[in-house]
Amino acid sequence: MSNNKDSINDSVPLPPKDAEVFTTACDYCITGCGYKVYRWPVGKDGDINKQDNAFNTDFPTPILSGVWVSPNQHNVVSVDGKDHNVIVIADHDAKVVNVGGDHSIRGGTIAKKVYNPNTPTKDRLKYPMIRINGKLERVSWDVAIEVMAEVSKYVIEKRGRSAWAMKMFSYQYWENTHALTKLALRKIRTPAWAVHDQPTGHGPDTPGMADAGIDNFSASYEDWSTAEVLFISGTDPFETKTIIYNEWILKGIRERGMKVISVLPRKTAGAAYAEKMGGLYLEINPGTDTILHYALSRIIMENGWQDADFVDKWINNRAESDKEVFHADGFSDYKEWIMSYKYSDLDLAVEMTGVPKEKIIQAAEWMAKPKADGSRPKTSIGFEKGLYWSNNYLNTATITSLGLICGAGNRPGQVISRFGGHQRGMMPGGKYPEHDAPGKFPGWKKHGIDVDQWVEDGRASFAWVVGTTWTHAMTASSHLEKVLRKMTSDHTQQPQRLDMEHIISTFKKRVDEDGMVMVNQDIYPIKPIGTELADIVLPAATWGEEDFTRANGERRIRLYQKFYDAPGEALPDWKIAAKFAKKMGFSGFDWETSNDVFENAAFYNKGRRTSYVALVEYARAHNKTGHELLAEMGTEGIQAPVRWEDGKLVGTKRLHDSTLKTGVSNGLTAIDFRWLRKFKTATGRANLLKAPWELFADYWEFMKPKDDELWVTTGRINEFWQSGFDDQVRRPYLRARWPDNWLEIHPEDAKARGIESGDQLLIWHDQIPVEVGGYTHSEKDTKVRGVVPLYANADIEQPDPLESLLNTDANRYDDSIRNLNSGHAELEEPDPLLQSMGGLPDSSDSVPERDNRQAPLDQQDQLEDPIMKSVESAIGMSWEDVKPMTFTEMQKNGYIEMDSASFEAVAIVTDAVKQGVAFTYFNLPSARKGSPNSLAGRVLDPVSQRPRFKLSRGKVKKVGESPFKDSFTEMTFKPRTIV
Amino acid sequence: MELDQQKGLLPACLTRRGFLIAGGAVVALPGLSSAAGVTVSAKKRSYPRKKIALLSDIEKDVPVSFRYPYDDEIYCNSFIIKLGSEAGGGVGGSKDIVAFNSFCPHMGGPLMGVYNKEHKVAGPCPLHLSTFDLTRHGMLISGHATESLPQVILEISGGSVYGVGMMGLIYGFNDNLNTSGREA
């Protein structure tokens, strides 16, 4: 393959007139910008006159032409063994998403993602490998798959289905996630399954929204520009979903005078610019959002600024199910609760959140105070992980209630939605087998297996890790890594020679001797999972190497076309899953192409937010494949749910859209869910939620920095995607910008520690709470954790000691119960999650109301607690039910261990972070020392079983000077808030 | 004499920067130096040596405009600036005089008049807010540009400052030295 001419960095070849053009979208963030790939054989370049190039443009090109190509947008790839130039640039013809070819630095350099052995992508995984005597050796696909199948059969037979575990990405294309989940959940039927960013695979990510009845991806990007007031919490879209900011939020600010309220402990460029243009920056202390939301709601209702018409029409006027949740008994009940609630006091909010009083009042006025002419401000709410990964249930419940009283949720420019992280790439192939999961809340409700703890408790004998770092990702704990090591690479049973029978028998012995066999399937060697721990490493093909589909943050579906050949023998994940499934003897994996998977999955998932069955039916009626039809739609694609009406395919701009007009349905499957126009509840009206701070208070107090500690919160940076595997590690331009992990620290905090920008820092803590145990089936597990023996593994478990403790409902494991989880969560389809998995597609449109409340186990105890006496949780539990799962009780019962961890980082002294708060990148395996995520407590939200990754604290000291302190070529310490 | 200097200096500058920038990758990924390794000898053309300004006319923190490498091309608008502290590629007694192209290598936003004196930064770009560190070869600080702000390689001779080369591709161009129809 030829060398990259662009290493000289002052020229790029231009595509000739006859260059082939492919359409795709960016592989990275939720925004999903449309891109075009121009491909032509090396040596046949075009030239600068418009008649000589595929852009039909004279060079130099004008400002905003959208076809200027930087050296980082060119590469050389192999197609059928021949070298081709490729230019990958944002689509200058785009009318949606990234209008006119706008792009982030991530997508803007995506040409460097493709495999080229003359670049830092040369270490792509190319062949299946098995670790022999500690060293990975190349094997054939047949051998790798056969070993996996033999060991899997043995594990399932000896230890049950739940000893077979899968940890996988939730987002890397529908064809792949469909095949992998069909295998794990519908065929193997293991409950030991979780996605990349959470320990358990069951339930919604934003449960407060689900309980209120709002789909967390209901908005259209246009709504982020047509609001008058936009309340943004826990993210700066400029940093993490760049083009949603550049093309939509910025447009609102500049062209319509939209006021942005940014709620963040760290000010970045987007928040700084919004503030400069007349917005507000609320510098919140980590973990106190719920308190801020109470205060804002109270100010609004005290002044009577709530949207009364909206509340009358769209809010349930009594608890939808008086057994459910924290549902308020209508607006008046909610108002009364907030008004009399001690945690809604403004002065208390000022003290706890650290946001000045006048700013809180100002924000409330902007959001809800009617204008002089009596009209109301159009307010929207958008949020992301800083909000819901710090205090999951309460933050999502209270921000939703705040939005609802402002009249947001179901109209253009008046929405409540997540902004999103990664794209929406989950297309389930099976539903989570919750009946086989041993975990349950007190009462009847099941919860998914916490796969990290499951492995740590020795319950898994086989683990298949697909496309995630696991040990460094959000649930990272040093505890997990130690256990994984012990069960795999440090186990005594290691294959000694490349002989399949020997390998299989060795792995079986390992299973018998409490070890685990691990498979790592990825595109690069992942440290340490792939490089040190996994027994079998499988090479996956990725973006650009196969035709894939996926939706972005406004449910826009596009085809991501293949434009070059994957390296070596790498295969797309769906093909690997299918190979294994067939070897296991499972039916339903006879797909020839990725389109076959796409079309199959459409019917299984017709009731989802991303429903596209109409597209497939339409394509078939017109003698096309689904992928072919999507290819014709190019980078514009179509917004799901896709409908076939009045003879045309129609996209759905937003969900719960009270202004939506639909036509006459064509095709076999009418797509006319009630939640297209109404909220996702039984009544179609939304619920206000009385979610109490007490559920979280003990944990927040414990995690709050003491003495000389600082909050050490984590987040992202515009320049990288996820763990930096493509960019921070393998793009010299970006590696020079960020050669190592860093810690932003306030000047006062730095001064007190003698720290200057560029110093090398150690950040550590030795009281990091980690949930442990729970799957040992002791009586205590049963009583406190609600863990019951596995039905799937009944042969190896003790007789159920619990039967007598369970009330009658506990044994009613019928499917319909799922409808009640977290406020009809299966209808919310909050992606990574599969609570919707397969769900009951036909029931999506109507939710039967049910009585799911249990009588309180101990009335007396409840009455003794004046605050909690009337509280019931989101999942049909009383306070008595929930209490054992609060941090205090868990600690008391020995389920919390204190872990210690540290990491090093380069100091950036900046007042962008507030005093008392430090900020670092969340997951940078390439960083020289330690993982920031390991400082985060691993204690799950008792209501949602979701983690609180963003809350960690640490001590900080200088340990030296980094090599970048005085460098002219690596890293910069200038403020990122110059606007 | 000047020709000799040009021959000697230009490759040295490019190689130095290429080497230093590649260095970061080499440390982490041994054996990958070929990716970013710069071999100036591969280049057949050369940059013009152009007089930009008199050293005595350059005041601290006051950008002076000029065009490089072509006079008749608006995207060759550049600025020279004395930062007051040593900078990557800086010339002069304090090694603090640097020069950069004036168009944002994201989508071509004009960076004239957005020099930040306090931090020695170009930007924010009026289009999408990108900023560039002028002390570190125009490295992106925040924003979207897919390369550093292209830097004009400078040389001092007899009280004058000369532009002798470019690092990075100028916005709008596919090749800084595409000479078809133009005279440098």
Task: Give a concise summary.
Chain A is α/β, with parallel strands linked by helices and 979 residues long. Among the domains of chain A are: 5-123, Immunoglobulin-like, CATH 2.60.40.4210; 129-203 and 426-552 and 555-584, 3-Layer(aba) Sandwich (Rossmann fold), CATH 3.40.50; 218-418, Dimethylsulfoxide Reductase, domain 2 (3-Layer(aba) Sandwich). In chain A, strands 6-5-16-15-14-7-8 form a seven-stranded mixed beta sheet.
Low-confidence stretches of chain B: 1-44
Q: Into which percent range does the helicity of residues of chain B fall?
A: 10-25%
Pattern of helices and strands of chain B: HHEEEEEEEEEE
Mean pLDDT value of chain A: 88
Mean pLDDT rating of chain B: 80
Tell me the strand order in the biggest sheet of chain A: 6-5-16-15-14-7-8
- Oligomer state of the chains in this structure: heterodimer
Largest interface: A-B, 69 and 73 residues
Rg of chain B: 16 Å
Description of the structure:
The complex is a heterodimer of chains A (979) and B (184). With 979 residues, chain A is of the alpha/beta class. Chain A is built from 30 helices and 27 strands. A seven-stranded mixed β-sheet of chain A has the order 6-5-16-15-14-7-8. In chain A, strands 22-26-23-25-24-27 form a six-stranded mixed β-barrel. In chain A, strand 7, helix 3 and strand 8 form a beta-alpha-beta unit. The longest helix of chain A is centred in the N-terminal third of the chain and has 19 residues, at 141-159. In chain B, strand 7 (131-133) and strand 8 (139-142) form a beta hairpin. Chain B has helices spanning 2-28, 33-36, and strands at 50-54, 64-67, 77-82, 97-101, 115-116, 121-122, 131-133, 139-142, 151-157, 160-167. The interface between A and B is large, with 69 and 73 residues.
